[in-house]
Amino acid sequence: MSELMNGRSCQRNFRWSLLVTASTFALLASAATLQEAVAEQSDDRPTVWVELGGQLERVDGGQTPYTPPFVLTTPRPDFETISPIDTQRLPRYSIGGEGKITFEPENTHWVFSAGIRYGRSNGGKKVHQQTVAKPYAVPIGTYVTYLTTHVEKFDNIEAKHRTSHTILDFKAGQDVGLGLFGGHGKSVFSLGVRYAQFSSKSDVSISSDPDFHLTFVQIPWFPTTFPPVPFSGPHHAFSGTFSGSHNFHGVGPSVSWDASAALTHSNNDAEISLDWGLNAAVLFGRQKSRTSHHTTGRYYPKYISQYSTNIAYRNPVTPGASIHAARSRSVVVPNIGGFAGLSFRYSNAKVAFGYRADYFFGAMDTGIDARHTTDRSFHGPYASISIGLGG
């Protein structure tokens, strides 16, 4: 009886041994197959991506306008349809390029990248406003009459602006995945360093004769039969020039989240993906501002131009003297931004386009005689193409 029981026990042990052995071989075969698939996928995945692109960005932040006293008087002249202040607005848009290199080591989830964005804009406006020129008949002799025209009142404004910005990013992150987007998505959290530099330069020139007019004068030593001769009547003449440059440069730590999820996928690795991301940084840097302006005003009470009176502006001791200001200050500038777009991907190439925004709070000192901080922001569409290397 005991021999029979021992035989059945041996059979059960043999069956369990056979089942464990078969399961072990199956697991080993599956692991080998999975390892080969991962290795094959890793071999096919590029390790270096080179990206080039461009953007059209709206620049917000503005420039403190040059406002000499004679452009602030009210009421404004009837012929003035465009304010000298509105003429000084900075260009609303800048164009530029961008580049980025990304390194993704094999068999890891690490992602290292270095990128640069650059944009610039040049703009200006010339405005000339005047009253309608009137004809005047000036007799030269008994039989000769000289017909001429003369502009009575006018404004002449000319403004030129140049702006530029450069943003550098160095980041190291990991693709955490977390199973959010299946096998065809990425979710990369990165820490890094951001450097930003902004600059603007403006030149403004304003001249105005707001109440110029002609008056007809009977010359005493001329014959009484000779008609009155037109001369300039009592009037004011103003002019002002301004030149200013403002810049900021700073560097600091940054954090970002870049993600993508496949909307479509095919057997040849081609796909359309939805891309989005958020970024934040704190920049430690310095603001600099340098300005110079010169304002003059003269009043002509008589028709002979030599008899004129200076009108003192800002400096009662030396009428019309230039005023200079230079400031430099250390600042901390918070920065937040984000983007959203679509990309068309293949195994070693990608084309992307979307909309991006970056806001830098209190980055610029745009004041003239005193410090005045303004934000600087950039937002607009972008497009890029990427090529994968290695793998």
A few lines on this structure:
With 391 residues, the protein is mainly beta. The protein is built from 1 helix and 15 strands; from the N terminus they run αβββββββββββββββ. The strands form 3 sheets. Strands 1-2-3-6-7-10-11-13-14-15 form a 10-stranded antiparallel β-barrel. A two-stranded antiparallel ribbon has the order 4-5. It has a two-stranded antiparallel sheet with strand order 8-9.
- DSSP strand content: over 45%
User: Which class best fits the helix and strand makeup?
Assistant: mainly beta
Largest sheet: 10 strands, antiparallel, barrel
Please give the share of residues in helix. Answer: 10-25%
List the helices and strands and how they pair.
Blueprint: H1 2-44, E1 48-60, E2 93-103, E3 110-130, E4 134-139, E5 145-150, E6 154-175, E7 185-209, E8 214-217, E9 229-232, E10 235-265, E11 271-300, E12 309-311, E13 323-345, E14 349-365, E15 373-389
Antiparallel strand pairs: 1-2, 1-15, 2-3, 3-6, 4-5, 6-7, 7-10, 8-9, 10-11, 11-12, 11-13, 13-14, 14-15
Task: Please provide a written account of the structure.
It is built from one helix and 15 strands. The protein is mainly beta. The strands form three sheets. The chain has a ten-stranded antiparallel beta barrel. Strands 4-5 form a two-stranded antiparallel sheet. A two-stranded antiparallel ribbon has the order 8-9. A hairpin with a 5-residue loop joins strand 10 (235-265) and strand 11 (271-300).
